[in-house]
Fold this protein.
Amino acid sequence: MKILGDREEVPPGKQNMISTRENSDYKWQQTRGVIGALEIPSVPDLVLEGEYTPRYVDRKEPVFEEALDLWHARKLRAEFLKACNNVPLASFCCGMLPDQDQWIKNIVKSLNKGWIKAINQKLKSERRDVYLDVYLWSWHNATGKSTTSILLVRFFESQRKSIMLGGLKESSQRSTEEEKDEEKE
């Protein structure tokens, strides 16, 4: 199942209103270079061993599919599970009850400081055109639980690749202009 995410803009009159999954879908896509994400089942509870849902960014599907192939080939899911399970479970009420939302927040902080940096260094050393981060996608609900927090593993196009694709025309234009300037001199 493909879930396409539109890069919707928040209407000015709705910025302070209750948000939903649908009208907050733009949040995880706002960072430059995002090509897609894997949504880890987090409602009602975080299920790290569950089925991860790929979330696509429009017009980036082929690039994201390549990144998912890399995710599977490198067995990054197993490493991700191990890293998440190393983050201590948060609790409240004097340690009597587990606090899933706080645990998700702790996972995001911990993995971005450690595991993600290590994985991205490996990918960079192998000259891969993708890198990862862990993202907390959240919104406020009108009823029931006040806030919903979803754990995402986001995939990014490397700067080198986006420069190569987007900057290719610019660099060829610059070199042509430079050649014309040299001929004039």
Observations:
- The two ends are 60 Å apart (CA to CA).
- Confidence is low (pLDDT under 50) at residues 166-185.
- Residues 133 and 154 are 5 Å apart (CA to CA).
